[in-house]
């Protein structure tokens, strides 16, 4: 042992499926988490450099270590590294495909087959731009491959078993399997399951980068960067539009509104990669229309016609479900309707999809109720003495009597005045108060489900008239930005007087406050005591706009860091949301701590259990300048459960333990210290998850590592457990309507568990790469509680073609002497896939010349692609990449550089320096 080694507590993917373990390592040890991140950073940097060269732009990495933040700064137009962090998290947390604890030749063969299928699936779904599914499969393949090299003899034989030989069709792999199988116990004993040798570490680094480079070559640089969320155009912009007859006079306004939303994002970092439209009627909904062309999307919307509809409620939630399962995670969805939901039974499914996808759903509702002729509302008797003729005036009447909390500060800073802090107005020597005008409309009870879904997703439910719909949209659009962070989000139902505190830090800009509710008064107060009241359209802090039940406060004055607060008074329900733009963001996953067979944890894919201890793995960006000091679960009512333990495991990665998960819905809130400027100017910051989560007393778990083969039934086992006894209702749905069978009920004893199976069959005509979202829900007796599991399955035909295209360089012509810019050279090559699936595309990965291709058929019936490449003599090297139909990659490389007299070791250094430029 080498003296002076420092012990580190690091995370390592354990030998159990889907789990991570904590181990104590020496400084020369490597762990999977760091290795995966390092490989992703390296490969993504190369892709950024190559793509910038192709686009004719500059790419320069900042000085210092390569981090997610520094790479995003150099490569992306995003203001935040949170997207890249999300991609890294989704890859590193993926399950392994096979348990390698019993390491032998059979395990290697089976694992290799699963890895090959996973890689093929990644390439297939990337072609269809299903990047979330691709990341999950990529992580599974990468983590499993690393496990083989860390737990068995492959690590010791690293130089003999490169990635290409491990997954290739031929070569010495059979002999390697035999050798590994015969010495598996010896290697497991010597390694103790850990990455403890430089040979193994080097092998893992090589295969990790090689696997990622293989995916990059098959996908191309642009799609690889989307896979890594380095380009913000990975999410979707979705419109779910009511086309029933009652929308006849709304459709034109909806067309204008959607066109405005589309145009507001074009040419910005938030321009979506894909546009999705889901119309709905009654009883029909869909189909889902998808395009990457904004103008085509507009034309499709312009062709919508309002018709039919029958009774008042419509199939809005069915259409929303189709949008949520068809769109990428973290997408933005706008629902336009003037009707309630007929399919309200889908509410729990929609909530599950929102929690899993983290997509934001905004509802634009044109069905608000008027005061007259409608059912009463809580506290309405306090207003009954008012006539509608007085609404909007400044009457000298007493505001409804409401009990204030002890010590509640005035709404508006004032040493004297009315109970609510209103500035007095004098008329004939009598004080009168400028109360807010009572609205002619109250919140429509039919919209309650929409309001709950909006709140769960971090979106807004805005009740407006048809005429003011465009105005509402224009002020809601700025709530979607790639660098957007949520500081605070809360609900008060029923309405009450409340104060909401939040910290503003120096990294924030474009601070905006959204408040929805009827008949409310509020004031916003900055850290320096400057205030602005609800009825000041332009004030000391900024501007306030109101449309329907929707207020937007946009702070335009210079932000003062420190503690801000909002005081709100209303006897009706209301919501408040505070957002801004900042590079400081966070993401998290619930995890379960394990003690056996080794200390570790596994990721929880469904809801946490009510009143149980919970652990969260929290990732924060800008880790070099910020430190978390608190993680808490915050209910909509404001009740907070603070984590009792918070420990930083790696830089920017924390493990938090909460003593008891609260009942019902909650958000995750983090607070910390930002020392961006200097140690002497420490400041507090806070962030909150926009998506609401729910606890449950029902646990459901479904898992499968298998692909969904066309025409072949796939059995997916699941387990339900609960401290509730009785008959549980089971529901299963998939977004393609594929044939399914499953247990409709399961009987549980309190504290027990039961097992079921969902059998899913994709039609034999289903193309490889089709992404299937399967939602399995278990509902307790009487509907008192429920939980879900969401699986993303990939349809993949059996992979039989493992041979990459081959290249034959036939001729090089041209004279390159003197001034290189005055002469050119040509390369002629033939590329073929033999009897494989056929070459699908050929591109130039290195070189600045032009490529022309044509396909000919040889006498043996095999297609050959003849490629002609022409370049300036200043561009002395070329690499052609050929990809076949299943993603196998072959390359051609040629250099016209004169032989160098520079020693070999110097040439390597020079080449590496050029690569890093």
Percentage of residues in strands: 25-35%
Structural class by sheet pairing and helices: alpha+beta
Instruction: Report how far apart the termini are.
Output: 39 Å
Described by the principal axes of the CA atoms, the overall outline is globular
Average pLDDT rating: 79
How many distinct helices? 18
Report the radius of gyration as a whole number of Å: 30 Å
Number of strands: 46
Mind summarizing the main beta sheet?
Answer: 7 strands, antiparallel
Order of adjacent strands in the largest pleated sheet: 1-2-23-22-24-28-27
- Low-confidence segments, given as residue ranges, are 1-30, 183-196, 370-442
State the helical fraction. Answer: 10-25%
Chart the SSEs and their pairings:
Elements: E1 8-13, E2 19-25, H1 32-55, H2 68-75, H3 82-92, H4 105-127, H5 131-151, H6 153-156, H7 163-167, H8 173-182, H9 184-191, H10 198-219, H11 221-227, E3 236-242, H12 251-265, E4 274-280, E5 289-291, H13 294-302, H14 316-326, E6 332-337, H15 347-357, E7 360-365, E8 369-370, E9 424-427, E10 430-433, E11 441-442, H16 448-457, E12 461-463, H17 469-476, E13 484-492, E14 498-504, E15 509-517, E16 520-525, E17 531-533, E18 542-547, E19 550-555, E20 562-570, E21 574-581, E22 586-594, E23 600-603, E24 614-620, E25 626-635, E26 640-642, E27 645-650, E28 653-658, E29 665-674, E30 683-688, E31 693-694, E32 698-702, E33 714-722, E34 726-734, E35 739-742, E36 745-748, E37 753-761, E38 771-779, E39 786-794, E40 806-813, E41 824-832, E42 839-846, E43 850-857, E44 863-872, E45 877-884, E46 889-895, H18 904-916
Parallel strand pairs: 3-4, 3-6, 6-7, 7-12
Antiparallel strand pairs: 1-2, 2-23, 4-5, 8-11, 9-10, 13-21, 14-20, 15-19, 15-21, 16-17, 16-20, 18-19, 22-23, 22-24, 24-28, 25-26, 25-29, 27-28, 29-30, 29-31, 32-33, 33-37, 34-36, 34-38, 35-37, 38-39, 40-41, 41-44, 42-45, 43-44, 45-46
Helix pairs in contact: 1-10, 1-11, 3-5, 4-5, 4-8, 4-10, 5-10, 10-11, 12-13, 12-17, 14-15, 15-16
